[in-house]
Design goal:
Elements: H1 3-8, H2 11-21, E1 35-41, H3 48-63, E2 68-73, H4 81-90, E3 95-99, H5 100-103, H6 122-129, H7 132-145, E4 147-162, E5 177-180, H8 184-192, E6 196-199, H9 205-210, E7 216-220, H10 221-226, E8 235-251, H11 252-257, H12 260-294, E9 298-300, H13 304-318, H14 320-323, H15 327-333
Parallel strand pairs: 1-2, 1-3, 5-6, 5-7, 8-9
Antiparallel strand pairs: 3-8, 4-7, 4-8
Length: 334
């Protein structure tokens, strides 16, 4: 498939065609037997997440001699976050990179790894997600939803941005229309702050901010950069309320159709690219606050504890039945 034809592919045409023809759609000519893995992502093409998919695709093509081809569809080309995860579950799409909180709509307990204030720092998150915990969650995901996690990416610390209001403590969030993903834990966090959660797909966010449909949003610094959200926001509020992992999810039936040797190549290539992405995100996080300041944003260091306290007082207990009794405490000890 050429780059131009890929661009012309509409969401509806792709998903309908893929569902009818199966996940593997043969290429023409000499590569008729190639396994084509279509990989969706809501992030802009210049974000490290889709960039890492392109890196993995290049390595996979070289190392499999063209037997496996990865095609990347960034920028929400194939739909919103929920649409793409549903497509992977059904087999209409092969792969997607998405947050664990949204995946909780398909496997409730997995959303805990993107809960607000669950991680002490990124090292704690990495250590926990390399423990048997992730294997346990993955096993249930495969059995119940037919999807498999094959890599975990560091997405960054999430911070609040605002269009016209300098937020210095949680008191300033009362009545604030905060865009959040379509995820229950994010909504509960916003409500604990006294804000009015306003769910929107990411590809609708820039316009909503520019038109004042919402007062602000929350995302990691690299996402604020790649989505150009700093252009339509005046204040960056360094809340650091969630340390976010994003998961590379694959349709398990499609995964098992790949020859074992090629599967190992794909897995190794994606994880190598994920490590590159992690380093790129960390590098960007170290400098982007200053970059935004130079671009005209005001950087606010708020009373972080005032944000943390009401969330921890309500959210873990609210979602204990969804996550499983004792899982929050278990993660704290990892």
């Amino acid at each position: 498939m050429t780059k131009m034809s890929k661009t012309l592919l509409t969401k509806r045409t792709f998903l309908a065609g893929a569902a009818a023809a199966g996940v593997f759609m043969p290429a023409i000519g000499a590569r008729a037997q190639a396994a084509v893995l279509r990989w969706g992502d809501g992030q802009a093409p210049n974000h490290p997440s889709p960039m890492s998919a392109e890196r993995a695709a290049k390595e996979v093509k070289e190392k499999t001699g063209g037997r496996v081809e990865i095609q990347s569809f960034p920028g929400g080309q194939l739909g919103g976050s929920r649409d793409m995860v549903e497509a992977v579950a059904s087999g209409a799409l092969t792969m997607v990179t998405e947050g664990a909180a949204l995946l909780g709509q398909f496997l409730p307990q997995i959303s805990i790894i993107e809960a607000p204030y669950i991680w002490k720092d990124s090292t704690h998150m990495a250590r926990a997600l390399q423990s048997p915990l992730m294997d346990e969650l993955n096993k249930v995901l495969v059995e119940k939803r037919g999807m498999r996690v094959i890599a975990v990416n560091y997405y960054g610390k999430r911070h609040v941005t605002t269009g016209s209001k300098a937020v210095k403590s949680v008191e300033d969030m009362k009545g604030f229309k905060l865009r959040v993903p379509e995820v229950d834990t994010f909504k509960a966090m916003a409500e604990a702050w006294g804000a009015r959660p306003t769910p929107l797909n990411f590809n609708e966010l820039y316009l909503a901010l520019s038109q004042g449909a919402v007062d602000g949003q929350e995302n990691p610094l690299p996402t604020i950069q790649s989505g150009k959200l700093f252009e339509v926001q005046k204040y960056l509020v360094l809340t650091g309320h969630i340390i976010t992992p994003r998961l590379v999810i694959v349709n398990d039936a499609a995964w098992n159709k790949i020859a074992p040797a090629d599967r190992e190549i794909v897995l190794a290539s994606i994880r190598t690219a994920a490590a590159w992405q992690d380093n790129e995100i960390l590098s960007q996080e170290a400098s982007l606050a200053d970059t935004f300041k130079k671009a005209g944003m005001t950087v606010v260091e708020p009373d972080v504890e005032s944000f943390r306290k009401p969330v921890l007082a309500t959210v873990p207990a609210m979602f204990e039945s969804k996550w499983g009794k004792g899982l929050w405490d278990r993660i704290q000890t990892l």
